[in-house]
Structures are given as structure tokens and as C-alpha cells.
Specification:
single chain, mainly alpha
Length: 100
């Protein structure tokens, strides 16, 4: 998608990284570039607003589900393995037949 107007930051780049912007998972310098782009590009601003609204709706409707403690422990264990540089198995070797 492009609005057809020239911008310092291309519309496709902004839309490719929109969720990083929404989740504040990008450097401040890039956030500033994107904010400037939204100020001058109404199609991208509209897409940003739509995605922001969807994100809020999902959080409101689904954000209160509790994560089972065993699932949390497995995920945290995998994260620890990855951080330590160890090999992570393709499947969970500790899972029972019902879980796999």
C-alpha cells in the first residue's frame, strides 16, 4: 500500500513494522520517523488507527485469560534454554501423549 506521495519513510516500510510501533518494540529514532510519517500520510494513519483499535479490542476481550502454570513453566524453561545457548528440542520431550 502506498498513498502515492513521496515520504522520507516509505509507506510499505511503515506498514511492515506497524506492530513493532504499536507494541513500542522499536528504537526511539524509528518511532519518531514513523510518527512523522503518520502526520503526513493519512492512509497509513488510518491503518494505524484500525490496527490500534483491533489490538485494544483483543486485549479487552481476551486479555484476562489466565495462563496455566505448567504451560508458563514450559515456556520459561524454553526461554532459559535459548538464552543459555543450549539446543532446544523440536518437540517437548516432557509432554504426556495427551499434551503433544
Amino acid at each position: 500500500m502506498s498513498c502515492g506521495e513521496p515520504h522520507e519513510t516509505d509507506c510499505s516500510e511503515v506498514l511492515d513494522h506497524l506492530y513493532e510501533f504499536l507494541d513500542s518494540e522499536m528504537p526511539d529514532v524509528d518511532r519518531t520517523k514513523f510518527q512523522h510519517h503518520f502526520e503526513e500520510c493519512s492512509p497509513c494513519l488510518e491503518k494505524y488507527g484500525l490496527e490500534q483499535a483491533v489490538k485494544k479490542l483483543v486485549k479487552r476481550c481476551c486479555g484476562h485469560d489466565d495462563v496455566p502454570s505448567d504451560l508458563r513453566a514450559k515456556v520459561m524453561g524454553r526461554i532459559d534454554l535459548i538464552r543459555s545457548g543450549q539446543t532446544v528440542p523440536e518437540h517437548d520431550v516432557t509432554a504426556t501423549p495427551q499434551e503433544s
